[in-house]
Structure formats: C-alpha cells, structure tokens
Amino acid sequence: MKPAKRIEKLPPYLFAEIDKKVAEAEKNGVDVIRLGIGDPDMSTPEFIIDRMISEVKRPENHKYPSYVGLDEYREAVSKYYDKRFGVDIDKDKEVVSLIGSKEGIAHISQCFVDPGDINLVPDPGYPVYGIGTMFAGGESYKMPLKKENDFLPDLSKIPEDVAKKAKIMFLNYPNNPTAAIATEEFFKDVVEFCKKYNILVCHDSAYTEIGFDGYKAPSFLETEGAKDIGIEFGSLSKAFNMTGWRIGYAVGNEFALEALGRFKTNVDSGVFQAVQLAAVEGLLNGEDSVNELNKIYEKRRDKIVETLKKVGINVEAPKASFYVWAPVPEGYTASEFTTRVLEETGVVVTPGVGFGEYGEGFFRISLTVDENRLEEAMERIGSQLSL
Ligand SMILES: *Cc1c(COP(=O)(O)O)cnc(C)c1O
Which of 2, 303, 306, 351 is the least buried, fewest Cβ under 10 Å from its Cβ? Predict the structure, then answer.
C-alpha cells in the first residue's frame, strides 16, 4: 500500500521531535513540566456542563443534527456578535456550525481553491491554513509575520502576480503563536487589498475572548466592507475550555458560507445537538466566566514575563491569547535553545520554527498550566538556566 501524495507531503507532526526528548527525560526520572501545547488546563464552566447534562437526556437530541446547525445555536451566535461586537449577523444565511473551527479552516480551501491556485498564509502560523491549502492542490504564499511590523503581514510586499492568483488570505488575531493583536487600520487595509484582488479573507478568531489589561479584541467583521469579502472562524474551545467538545462556527459572507455548507453536507453531518445547546449557554451567558478566566491567565502571564526578564530575555507582556512569544537569546537557534531549556530545567517550551521558517529566533510558552506547576517551572528557569 502507498498513501496518496497529499499524505506523503504532510510535514512531520510539530511536536514529534519534542515528544521524543520528553519521553527520554521522563525515563531518566525528570519531572517534566509542559508549557508547550495550547490546550486549556481548567474545566469547562459548570453552567455549560449543566445544560449539556439536561440536553443529553432528551431523545430529540440523539438524531442527526442539521448540517448548518440548530436554529437556536445560530441565533445565539448572531446575538453574541451583536452584543459583543455590534455586528449584524443573519442567523439564516450568515452562520454555519462547525465541528470545531479547525474543521472549517481545513475545509474552506476545498470550496475555493483549484489545483495551482495560491493562498496567502501567515508564517509563523497555525499549520492548518497551509495544510488545507495543500490538500486542495493549492500553493501557500507565505506572508512573514515580523517583529518590526508588530507581527502583522506587510501587504505591500505581496507581489502583484501572486495577489492576482490568490484565492484566500488567512489571518488570525489575537495571533497564535506570536500573541500579536491587529489594529483597526490593518483590518481596513486588508479589506481594501482583498477587494481589489477579489480574495476571500478567512479570519481565525480563536482567541478573541482571551485578553488582558482590559483589552478586548475586535472581530474582523467590525471593519467596514468586511462581510463583502470575508468570513470569520469562531471557536468556543479557548474561551470556555471546551477543546474536547468540538464546536465552532463560521460567520460572515453569505456566498462563501453557502459553499462551505454545501461541502459539509457531503462530508459530515453536523455537531451533536446537545453540544450545540450547551454552547448556546457560553455564547449568551459567558461573560463573567470569560472575565474570570482572563484574570487567571493574566496572573500567569505576569509571572512568566517577570521570570524571563530576570534571566535576561526581554519580552513584552502580550495583550491577548494565552501565549508568550519570546526572543531566543543570542547564539542559539530556536531548537537549540528549547532543547537546552528542557535538558537543564525539565521545562518544555516550543521552538518558533515549529510554526514556520519566520518563527526562527523565537520560542512560545503556553499559559495553560496551573499556578503551582507554573511557579515551579519559573523557579527552575530562574535558578537553573545558565545563559
Ligand atoms: C486552537 C486553535 C484553533 C482550533 O480551535 P477548535 O475550535 O478547537 O478547532 C484554531 N485556530 C487557532 C489559531 C488555534 O490556536
């Protein structure tokens, strides 16, 4: 048996190399602390679980769900957009439920990319943008996210012939892995650029609810004209510690969502209705719980930033997402440095190159471990790391 080229072309799993080293360290008795993967450590809030418990008992929820999502779920997404962003979303034409936003991000290229087409993909970035592009037979044109541009792509550097061939521009703010945020002006430039070249903007808003120091991230759809050329992928995973529940949504341009919905009717059968109804609770009544979560992450962020500064790594405190993106000290590549951190302290952090070539020179720390473990990790880095 020989797998298809698209499977053979898949890059090695981002964390495979690290996992090997971690397994080795653990075999040698090291108490490893994982600050690598971005999966929330805390439980889904009680009020969401309670709704799930009652809905899971109702037989009408045991059937195949509708592929676009329950009316009640789409209405909740629409209400959330109105209340949180002041954006008007038609629940009947401008919302599609997703089996986690990753599912929609992976499939959107199937709807708009033919072999030989180009997608504009941020680097460093969430790997699914490029892999979804490759699965559709398209090519990724990498938009470097550089510190000197506050980790926003420089649209003026995209060659005219590339822009003309491009079908989709993927963006993600607050950003994983750089923790950068977008300005209103940047989003305006994106709308203008993509209208000029007829490119579908796919904005990944997985971290919109995770913000610090009072910062509340905007929706891309707040930008004038955004809905004419764009959709936004949303997720309950990060805001409500629901990564395992698999629920998200796409909102925005009606034409694009109709295509995505048509694709989905042919490959999946929607999200378990009880999960959709539990998610409604988060969307409509989740504000306090999000605020509490952010307070916890903010404390963790402060602890990490303080420790890094102490060991001479100069890092700015991020305003959003649950990552700290820090420069690697001089004299190391990102992988050399993260290996050194693991070997000297038993703490796992992610080398920036794992997210693309322009991630070289940086490493990422996740805020998703509890206070005690984080305290321990920072103590080790503060006292055992010799730079
Ligand atoms: C976590 C994450 C997602 C995936 O979220 P799901 O809704 O759980 O699929 C999407 N984009 C980015 C950048 C993420 O970090």
Answer: 2
